[in-house]
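Fresh eyes needed here. Have a critical look at this protein's tokenised backbone.
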Amino acid sequence: MSTRDRHAVVTGAASGIGAAIVARLLHDGWRVTGLDRAACPSANGLAAVEIDLADSRRLDAVLRELRGVDALVHAAGFMRVAPLGELSSDDFDAMWRIHVGAASVMANALAPALPEGGRIVLIGSRTAEGAAGRSQYAATKSALIGLARSWAAELAPRGITVNVIAPGATATPMLTDPSRAGAAPRKPPIGRFIRPSEVAALASFLLSEEAGAITGQHVVVCGGGSL
């Protein structure tokens, strides 16, 4: 199957890393169904669906109406930060629903019909390894690793791969979100933040035929920040 015959579902498609992945896949010739609460810019090959990923029933219904899906990229996410003593259960629940709950709903709906060569890529975070003041965010992103490795083992016999891309601080609107004022990002040793296009390029590769032997992996893109 050529790239131009392939169909990817991408969440967080309206901005940031998700939008960069959509743009890259469209450039590569994919058809894309983009999911986001906000409206996506129109583009040839893009079918946009405005949806709150926390609405699991509607999300499941939308996905089960799709046909010919070859890949899922879950890029939607947000960060809420707080130190111990100020943690919010509402913030934690909200991040869990988007990062982990939505991933589970989507994989459950799409994986049974994915063809050989199908792909699932989850956008995690380097913060999954732990960071002061970001424990709840880190926990939800760490959970994606457990999901991905479990699904990778389950789907490998069908020739389907599942991987996590874990960016460090990336030049997206999340960097200037007022809610993270107490946990400002630091530039990595390369002297700049990660570019969304760099994450998109890696996602494109992991969706490709050439990446068929890479599965169950947690690929960190941190500009040297983890050194």
In short: Helices lie at 16-28, 56-65, 89-110, 135-155, 196-206. The chain has a mean pLDDT of 93. DSSP finds five helices and seven strands in the chain.
